[in-house]
Each structure stands twice: as C-alpha cells, then as structure tokens.
Amino acid sequence: MSESNGRHAEVAGGGFAGLTVATALAQRGWSVTLHEKGDELRAFGAGIVLWHNSLEVLKAIGAYEPLLPKSMVPPFYETRMHNVTQSKEDFWGLEWRTMTRQDLHETLVDAARNSGVDIRVASEVVSADPAGSVTLASGEVRKADLVIGADGVASKVRDSNHFELERTKSRDGITRLIVPRRKEDLGPGEWDNVIDFWNLEPRVLRVLYVPCNDDELYLALMAPIEDKEGSAVPINYDVWVESHPYLAPVLEEAAKIHGRYDGYQTTVLKQWTKGRIALIGDAGHAMCPALAQGAGTAMSNAYTVAVAATEAANADLPQALVDWEARERQITDECQERSAWFAETRSMAKGNQFTPQMLETARYDPTTREMISVG
Ligand code: FAD
Ligand code: 5PR
Hints:
Layout: E1 8-12, H1 16-26, E2 31-35, E3 47-51, H2 52-60, E4 77-81, E5 84-89, E6 96-100, H3 101-114, E7 118-120, E8 125-129, E9 133-136, E10 141-143, E11 146-149, H4 156-159, E12 165-180, E13 194-199, E14 205-211, E15 216-224, H5 237-243, H6 248-254, E16 261-269, E17 273-274, E18 277-279, H7 282-285, H8 294-311, H9 317-345, H10 360-363, E19 364-365, E20 370-371
Parallel strand pairs: 1-2, 1-11, 2-7, 4-13, 11-18
Antiparallel strand pairs: 3-6, 4-5, 8-9, 9-10, 12-15, 12-16, 13-14, 14-15, 17-18, 19-20
Helix pairs in contact: 1-3, 1-8, 2-8, 8-9
Bound molecules: flavin-adenine dinucleotide and ligand 5PR.
C-alpha cells in the first residue's frame, strides 16, 4: 500500500472500469471506497479479448502476471464466410489475449483489495453531486474529492446529473456463453484460433469462437434482433447447427445454458465530466463490440483519469478532468464510430478488417501515451 495523499475518491460500480480506476487511485495514495450494487462481486457475460492498450494498464497496476496462466494468445484471428477461410490475422505481433470475464474480474478484485480499496457490495449509488459527494440507496451521503461514475450503461451517477447523450441501437445483437472446449470432438481445424464464422445467406447467423484457456471456450452467437429464432435464449440448437454443422459439439453445450441476448448499442455523451465527477466505461462511452474495445477503452480511461486526478492540485481537479477528457477522448470516440460502422455494415465478414487504422485503439499505450505502429 502506498503513502496517503490525504485525498478521497468514491467510485460507483465494481466492473472492469471501476475496479481499475479504484486500484490505480489507491496505488497513488488515495483512500478509495468502491460501491457495487450487486450482492456479490462478479462479472456478467462470458469471454473477452484484450489488446495492447488494456494489457499495458494491467501491467501498470500489477494485474497482468496473475492473469497469464488463466488466459491465452490464440495463434490467429481467422475469419470464415460460409465456412471458407477469408483471412488469418495476427495483427503483426501486436499483443492481444483472450480470457473469461470471470477470470479478468477476479484478478482485478484481487488487485483492488491488495491496493487497499474499500469495496462495499450491496451498496448502490443513487446520485452524485459535482461539488464532490455521492448519495447511496441507504440515504447515506459520502463526500469525496473525486467521484467516478463507472456504473455501466444505465449509470445513475450520469443520469442524476442529466449529462447530455445520444443513444443509437443497432439491428444485431448477441448471445454470449462459456462452454467446454471439446476440441477432440470438433473436426479438422485450427481450434486454438479465434474463428469468426459468418453466415449471411440464407440468413444472418454468426458464431464468434474464442478459446479462453485449455478448458473454456467463449461462444458469441450473433443474429438480428428481428430474427426471433436466432435471438432466442436458450439458443435454438436446430437453427444454429443447421447453419454451423461443424460446431455441433460446442453448440450442443451452448444449448444447455440459458444465457442472455443483448442488442448492440452506442452511447455518446457531450461531456464526460462535471465538476468533480468523471464518467468512464459504459457509463460514458458504451459501444458496439466489433473491435472488442468496450472494456479496453474503459480500462484505458480508468487508468488515465487516475493519473490526471493525482497530478492535479485538489482545487484544480475539475479543470484537470476537463483537460483529461480533451486529451483522451478522441481515441475512444473513433473506436465507437468504427465499432458502430462494423455493426452497421457487417463488413467484418470479409476478413482482413483489422487494419493498422482499425487497430488504433489497440495500439495506444495509455500508460505512456505512445502509439505503437504495426503493418
Ligand atoms: P459494467 O461491466 O457494466 O460494470 C458496471 C458495474 O456497476 C456492475 O458491476 C454493476 O452491477 C454496477 N452498478 C451499476 N449501477 C450501479 C450503481 N448505481 N451503484 C453501484 N454499482 C452499480 N469489451 C472488450 O474490451 N472486449 C470484448 O471482447 C468485449 N466483448 C463484448 C461483447 C458484447 C456483446 C458486449 C455487449 C460488450 C463487449 N465488450 C467487450 C464491452 C464490455 O463488456 C464493456 O464495455 C465493459 O464491461 C464495461 O465495463 P464497465 O465497468 O464500464 O461496466
Ligand atoms: N469481438 C468480440 C466479441 O465478443 C464480439 C464481437 C467482436 C471479442 C461480440 O460479443 O463483433 O460482435 C462482435
């Protein structure tokens, strides 16, 4: 634990954004209380892909090494259209890793606890004051020098302050599940690759196959919202196996789990900060998943806001947050636009879509503000 700097932060939300910012602040001498409204600390959803940007953040907060044995680096991101390989991308060696969300979340909880963050579960933040306080569902008001809204897409820190926002919903959505890998039961194929199986005809049904470790496979099954059968949970095995027969063993596992179908959406705010409040993660910039950067940008902005707040004198903190947003925002805005464009056009199906430009967010190192070049 580091020496106290005499300042206090209140963080709403125990997801990837909240845990990262709380840890980075505590490691810089802040006393930090994190409120999670759920009764326990756990990750929702299934698997996740992290890239150079968020992996550098994990290194900086000491959460990278513990994650190594629980995660993997697939040899290629392979894209198939109607089961014909279109591309096999390795991002020119740019670092990326796959893992389950549960494993990432547990690692971040450990990092937060080891850094001295006071984590409170069953503690809901109902509103926040830009002058520096949060109000809990219990009625308790807690003062802070810095208030972080990391309370997800339905953020109360955000909505209690009437931040201006624009929300766009896409026509597709996805059911995400973790299933046993059953590699030996699948036919010939490079089953350690991430494989993005697109079927556009006779109907749009896509399976994103993401191995997370030796035992666990993340399956994301995408179908248009209007396709009642394709978007049903638990999944309609007959529909999915008809379009992807070569995945029968793992689809059989997927059909045993209830899962949840989520529509894609993008939220763009006019501003991310107000007084002593900063919004990060889905509270501030929820995005479509195509570039796999929702959590990546959340962790990146979590880290940089912690640094910016620490470097500012306490009286100057509101202005320091404005400057932080001005510095960091473009990279997130562009990622939101690109991810929404992929959702709109479904052009990931063509393969070779991870160009150096599309990888810009991934190439950014928030800990040094350097952009590494590839390609
Ligand atoms: P959340 O994960 O939503 O966490 C918010 C937390 O706050 C929750 O624990 C919640 O219970 C708590 N909370 C909510 N309200 C309150 C309150 N009022 N008071 C206290 N606590 C509260 N990103 C990637 O980087 N890579 C991927 O591969 C990837 N795949 C994705 C696939 C899909 C289909 C989707 C929809 C998203 C994907 N993402 C991915 C995005 C990623 O999941 C999110 O961007 C990320 O989880 C956001 O983290 P967060 O901490 O901001 O929010
Ligand atoms: N990449 C990842 C992912 O989980 C999804 C997408 C892309 C890692 C969906 O869940 O394009 O939908 C996508």
